[in-house]
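pls ignore typos typing on phone
zinc ion + seq
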Amino acid sequence: MTLSGQEFVRRWSMHVLPEGFVKVRHYGVCSNRTKLKVRAIVFADLGKEPPPLTKGLKWVEVYLQIYGKSPLLCPSCGQSDLITVQILPPIRDGPSCIKSYNPHALQH
Ligand SMILES: [Zn+2]
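k done
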């Protein structure tokens, strides 16, 4: 499908809500209120055990749960925990408002 720029903007702008309106993102079976109940029903219908919940777990614990191995082990020899040697700076600088922020300038 190929659209002209004007037609694309027209279609895209149809998704912009008027001022004062709020988009409801999660409702029905996806709402926070019902999703745990629905989850249990869906997996019961499928005849499968639902996977354990990951809320509140650290990323390392979730990784371990999913892949069955620690992400901190050396991928080559599989032994000992990896340690952080260096954190590389971001490739891009980020927003200009952060670059211009100087906390020491506020003290003087
Ligand atoms: Zn190793």
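DSSP finds five helices and no strands in the chain. The two ends are 59 Å apart (CA to CA). more later
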